[in-house]
UniProtKB/TrEMBL annotation:
GO molecular function: RNA binding; RNA nuclease activity
PANTHER family registered for this protein in UniProt: 2-5A-DEPENDENT RIBONUCLEASE (PTHR24141)
Transmembrane segments: none
Name used for this protein in its record: Nephrocystin 3-like N-terminal domain-containing protein
Keywords: ANK repeat, Repeat
Amino acid sequence: MAMAEKLHKRFHKDKNPEGMDFNDVQIYLQAAIAELKGKKEVYVLMDALDELPDDREGLQRAQMLKWITETSNRETHVHILFTSRMGSSCMDIEAAMKSQSRLFQVSIDTMTNRDDIRLYIEGQFRANNNLNKLKNLAQVNIIERLIGKSDGMFQWVSCQLDELKDLQIARSKDVEEVLNSMPRTLDECYMRILQGVNSRLQTEIIKALHWISLSFQPLSLEEVNEACIIDSTRSPAIKKEDQFSGEGIATLLSSFVSRIGDGKKHLSLSHFSVKEFFKSSTIQDSEYSKYGFYESGAHASIAESCIAYIYYYSSCPMRLGTQSDLEYFPLLFYACRYWFEHLRLAEEEQERLAPFVIKFLTSWEVYRNALRIYNPLYPEKLFPCKIPTLASPLGWAAALGLEFLAERLLEEDSKSIDAIQDIRYFTQKHEETAGLATHPSIEFMCELCGGEEMPGIVVTQYANPIRGTALMKAVAHGHENLARLLIENGANVHVQEKGYAMNIESALSIACGKGNENMVRILLQGGADPNENCGGESALKRAIRAQSKSICEILLEKKAHVNESESAQYSPLMTAALMGDSDLCNLLLNNGADINWKIEEEAEGLIDALSIATRNGSVELVDLFLSRGSQIRPEALFGSLSAINMMEDLPSDASRYNRVCELLINGGADLNPVSEAFDTPLAMALHIEWYDIAKLMLSKGAQVHPDDSSCLTAGNTLVAAVKSLDMTREILDMGVDVNAQVAFVEPFAEGYDYDYRHFSSALQAAAFHHNRDVVKLLLNRNADPGITGPPYGSALYAVVGRIVSDQFVSSGDLSVAQQICEMLLAKGAEWDRKYGPEDEERMAECMLGYRGLTEWQKGSIPLNAPLQLANGGNTWFQIVS
């Protein structure tokens, strides 16, 4: 499945697998479900839901529970199976289960998984050289005792097996001693493991366990070896003599960790209960309390260590500023990528770190090095990230969600709260011209652009970040509490700023575009105008483009205008139609949207909501708009007919366009419109071979005007019908002249489009398509084979032109072509040999046909076209001429 592969690739790329937040998971899950829409049943499996973090702002577990319940109610063919422990730490999961009738609980009790535990133990015995030497009776005794005391916990069994495996000689006496001293609980198992820890390396072991417990992505062995020796109180934070080699600290972490990933090069806690143990009161009240941690304090320590490591990197003489730095400094990427993530979770420790963080953000040389490794403004860009920084720590506090830091900075100075935080590229020349004071960050910009004169807009191959104020940064990055703080401190919610892509943005437009419902509420409560016009687009249209029905409802409740005031703008309803969202269209119509709003000029004919729906082939929307009284303008019918012709590859459900056309015709569409830009609907339907639609049109009054000598419609219709013998006969029977003129025939040019209107007569078109029966019908109806015109000259030349234009010509094709030529010659057609250099104008007019004849004469047709026929070895040209 493509979406699953993309998800795995994104978060396991290179050597640095990324952690996922709820938005990432939701986007990919919904896309995967949509991709599998055609399947009868879809199954989604989620393991260990209880291990999702319940952080203060993200509320990932709560959001995932909400997604599960909403999806199970909305998508009845989607079946979601998730696992979780029960208990005091999972009360929210139990409550969600009880509140939803569609969620069913299956309990796995101790007895249920005894067989699984038995298989696990037997496998461990077979794999261990000492344990597999025990007699069968002894093995059975050990297995039964382990299962009996396990209470269904694999991790408890694993810990006991580790102790048994450590026996250098597995005598029955030694085994019995281990079994008799087995701890009753997991906590007791972990306490026993700590008894054997090397006290000389206690500090390093504690740091390593804390890092592994709280890291946002699995850490490699090299990263853990580096992390556990950082001392943020000294400079440099790492001393060479402290560094580990080889396996290093991993050999001392015992049963607490396990190797994971390709090559088993990354470390992870062996079980979720290990983290709970280090956070529990059990260890806090014991002699091993140093190993325990409060999450906020541990996150603060890790954040501080990350920043200290960046300082160490910046001052190290071994720094080269190249890709090799990521190998020589193994923790560098993690430190630059996640220091602020850990800092956000430091809670009561944040204030203590504030001065240190401000100093870091204003140490331009040091912070520049961090941005080169990872820049949060360009998260997709990997090293080296030579891209801009922000103007002040307040801008970074807003972008990174550091609420405590923003609060402290605002207390010191709130005057610049509405300053644009993005620094543009300037050279020294521009700096002097603009009268700008020398600023380290501006010098940095000049260095990055290589001294070139690049004032103003920064263009990269990556998605540009939102330009703007601290509030706009907070909104763009989804930091709701921080946005609320900035508004409370006087941030202007109405500021608009031109982005890197020249688009105009405001805080509200950003929130609507991101689909952040809570943020929209915060901004509206803070005084944002629901009818603001931002770069020619309303907040409502931004929300529609994000396909957020809830935000649209909020804006409409706040009296957002449901109709446009300028005739040149798409209306909200047209925008919703463009997105193909029937729920939004219904919402807008129910709130007074003008279904017949029309824009004055639109080159592609998308002038109203109905024409957009028809061009997109949306049966549901066309049906909805017609039921709501939509006027059927000519552009709507043309849109449904031309859409198929404009597609290079037909969609699997192309029949929906046919159904749309049928709805419009039965709804009273004008089948005989006067248009300079389009042919008649009947001719268009015949061209794309929708003969059922063509017959429906004829039954509903479509006309060909055979008696009107000033109208060329009849000729076009006849030319469009020549692929079908029945339709050609029906059009002729309506009185159309077999030699009717054709409209819109353009002079031939290189790259000529072989459209049905680009033939001078129906006979020429039928000859080109090698439709022998239609050619015979037309000739029997007195079609004139002598009529000439672009692009082939005559019908005889059109036969040759088709042969030359095809990449592959079968003997069957040649046989049919020969028969058509003989029919034409029998009716008086001639090979006109006057086309040559002496008649350049006529030769140019009929270039395709002339070129085809010349190629045949020279024998230079592609080798895959058989030149010799069975008729005495003569070439086809010799026969037909």
